[in-house]
Specification:
mainly beta
């Protein structure tokens, strides 16, 4: 359930965390130029393919092209800046369109608002403790035509295609629990500049994940964007790269504990690859940087 439920209800939360570092400013000393991926499951192996192309204008990220396995463009993200901070990200598919707006209160991220084909799709608000995010309340609004979950899960379908239908099915189930929207609460604990634990609750269900990290530089630190997936949930706000996740889930009176690990290769202090495995599903992400 953790790969389905947490992604389905928190797919946008990873984009919220960058403000804790540079308050919406993203200009790393090493800039990603391309991301390649490969994955396998149940005897299938994708082979290595170009997943993302990052386009920079000097120190500002202007756009990201997300690619299908065959090299074609699946969708694009375009970034808008206000006073040097990311204030809006437009995401364009061939048949749909959504955008995310980031609102700041002084030096802190105050609110995230998402729109899908012109309709309000979701919004998030934050509380802070000692200058770091301590809680987030996130509300998603289901559309009558149920098309929004299809867009939200399409990125994951590039990585683990067989999970897409399960994610959408789970969103439909959750949408029947309340009228107008579903609100989820996340609480955060920190160890220095890294998130040490995230806990999510919905009614009598709850789930928490604890993290450990390496001591190398995270190339996404301070980044805000429009799409992410559950394997990237914590990394945008943490200074270092996650090496282990320990999940505890309580659902319908049953508790489950699971652990995932990640291994890296590095060029100095920067990762050049990240390998993961969830049961019989596995994959590697490769990073290339602007020279």
């Amino acid at each position: 359930m953790k790969r389905i439920l947490l992604f389905a209800i928190a797919v946008a939360t990873a984009m919220t965390f960058g403000s804790c570092h540079k308050e919406g400013k993203y200009s790393p000393s090493k800039k990603i130029s391309k991301i390649y991926k490969e994955y396998g499951y149940d005897g299938y192996f994708s082979g290595r393919y170009l997943s993302e192309s990052w386009n920079w204008n000097k120190n500002q990220l202007q756009s990201i092209y997300h690619h299908n396995n065959d090299g074609s463009i699946s969708y694009t993200e375009d970034f808008t800046y206000t006073k040097g901070r990311i204030s809006r990200v437009d995401c364009r598919y061939s048949s749909s369109y959504y955008y995310t707006e980031f609102t700041y209160d002084g030096g802190k991220l105050a609110r995230i608002t998402e729109y899908y084909n012109g309709q309000l799709a979701g919004e998030s608000s934050f509380t802070y403790k000692n200058g770091k995010i301590s809680t987030m309340n996130e509300t998603y609004y289901m559309h009558k035509d149920k098309t929004m979950p299809m867009v939200k899960s399409s990125f994951l379908s590039l990585i683990i295609p067989e999970l897409s239908d399960k994610i959408i099915e789970n969103l439909y189930r959750l949408s029947n629990k309340s009228k107008g929207g579903n609100t989820y609460t996340y609480s955060f604990e920190w160890n220095g500049d890294n998130i040490s634990m995230i806990k999510y609750s919905y009614g009598y269900e709850w789930e928490e994940v604890k993290f450990t990290y390496d001591n190398k530089k995270n190339p996404f630190y301070g980044f805000l964007d429009n799409d992410s997936n559950s394997e990237n949930l914590e990394k945008y706000c943490s200074k270092n790269n996650i090496t282990r996740e320990t999940w505890t889930e309580y659902d319908e009176g049953e508790m489950e504990i699971d652990t995932d690990t990640y291994t890296y290769t590095y060029d100095g202090n920067w990762p050049t690859s990240r390998r993961w495995q969830y049961g019989d599903e596995y994959g590697t992400t490769y990073y290339e940087y602007v020279k």
